[in-house]
Design a protein that fits this description.
By secondary structure, the protein is of the alpha/beta class. The protein has 2 domains: 239 residues, 3-Layer(aba) Sandwich (Aspartate Aminotransferase, domain 2), CATH 3.40.640; 126 residues, Aspartate Aminotransferase, domain 1, CATH 3.90.1150. The protein has 13 helices and 15 strands. A 7-stranded mixed sheet has the order 1-9-8-5-4-2-3, sandwiched between helices. A 3-stranded antiparallel sheet has the order 7-6-13, with no helix packed on it. Helix 4 links the parallel strand 2 and strand 3. The chain is globular. The mean pLDDT is 97.
Length: 380
């Protein structure tokens, strides 16, 4: 089976993990701090907090932004459920914005329509590895005094005009699941230039318990004292995972460039198939991390999407769909979200197939994917 994505683990990665296994600290040790510093440098951010998952990092960001009961958080309809779920975790309401039909990215014009007096934050998603329109969203967030939290689960290694993902957001989350730009197995991180936000993130990931005496409300107690200041969670990243992450980070540039090479080949391999809609090429000054390569069937064929997907898998090609619009999940339907909220997102999702794209994908495998897809689209 050719997977839609998979990790690339080297001997150096294995040695990095082995070193930690021989070290006194398996968690809450120096490997986490080292990884955070390295990731902050790559992201050109002042601070980085590592977490057990990307979802836990987002949850912490919503907490740090002060989002709570009765607030609204605007998220794109096309995303993994966690982007919206984290709003529910803190008692807020997810409000879904429609997407640009060519890229699947959050549509700024629709975001403007969805802002109310209860809106607390805008959370764009860098779908497929392409950075959202952060400049426009930054202006909008500043105008309405909203937090701007970038879900960069797909975009580590991406940049626009030389600026990396995250440089315009208040906080940016990266994910290290095995299919992402780099992996720690499971894991995530939040980068920010705001020290106060960083401190809240760090507090939240460790049960809400502070150890810095300068922040204590109770003074003069012994060195044993730790102060619980908020209701946090155990969202810490172990040193074992951090060591893998830092080792992987050294190859981030190579990983992204290999993904870009795969993305450049697909249009050549599929150029003669007029019933496929390919993702737009990178714009001038744009570097996508190409986490996904999402193609869509032409409208007249979109009803056959599931049939094509099943036959791709039968042919040994692990294609996938990214994503069902979040509010179309059964859980969200039970919350009262109706169909038709974001028609462009629904049309995008109904026609989308994610083709294999990862650093180790061979040309012969990619050629097989393209030939099989063209045959199936032609009904053969």
């Amino acid at each position: 089976m050719i997977p839609y994505s998979t990790q690339d683990i080297s001997d150096a990665d294995i040695r990095a993990v082995a070193r930690v296994l021989r070290h006194p600290y398996l968690t809450q040790g120096p490997a986490v701090t080292s990884f955070e510093k390295a990731l902050a440098a790559v992201s050109k951010a002042d601070h980085c907090a590592a977490f057990s998952t990307g979802t836990s990092a987002l949850h912490a960001a919503y907490f740090a932004a002060g989002i709570g009961q009765g607030d609204e958080v605007i998220v794109p309809a096309i995303t993994f459920a966690a982007t919206a779920n984290c709003a529910l975790y803190v008692g807020a309401k997810p409000v879904f914005a429609d997407v640009d039909p060519s890229t699947g990215l959050m549509d700024v014009a629709d975001v403007k329509k969805k802002i109310t007096s209860r809106t607390k934050a805008i959370v764009p998603v860098d779908y497929a590895g392409r950075i959202a329109d952060m400049a426009a969203l930054r202006k909008l967030a500043d105008k309405h005094r909203l937090a701007l939290i970038e879900d960069g689960a797909h975009s580590l290694g991406a940049s626009f005009k030389g600026k990396p993902a995250g440089h315009l957001a208040d906080m940016t989350m990266f994910s290290f699941h095995p299919v992402k730009s780099i992996t720690t197995g499971e894991g995530g991180a939040m980068v920010t230039n705001d020290k106060a936000l960083f401190q809240k993130l760090a507090l939240f990931r460790s049960h809400g318990i502070a150890k810095d005496t300068a922040t204590f409300q109770r003074k003069g107690l012994g060195p044993w004292y730790q102060e619980m200041q908020a209701l946090g969670f155990n969202y810490r990243m172990p040193d074992i995972l951090a060591a893998l992450g830092e080792s992987q980070l050294k190859r981030l540039g190579k990983f992204v460039e290999r993904r870009r090479a795969v993305a450049r080949r697909y249009p050549k391999l599929l150029s003669d198939e007029k019933n496929l809609i390919l993702p737009p090429a990178e714009r001038a000054g744009e570097v996508s991390a190409w986490h996904l390569y999402p193609v869509r069937l032409a409208p007249k064929l979109s009803a056959r999407r599931d049939e094509v997907l099943v036959k791709l898998r039968e042919a040994g090609i692990g294609a996938q769909v990214h994503y069902l619009p979040v509010y179309r999940h059964v859980y969200y339907e039970k919350l009262g979200y109706p169909a038709g909220l974001c028609p462009r997102a629904e049309a995008f999702a109904a026609a989308e197939i994610s083709l294999p794209i990862y650093p180790g994908l061979r040309l012969s495998e990619q050629t097989k994917v393209a030939r099989t897809l063209k045959r199936l689209v032609a009904g053969k």
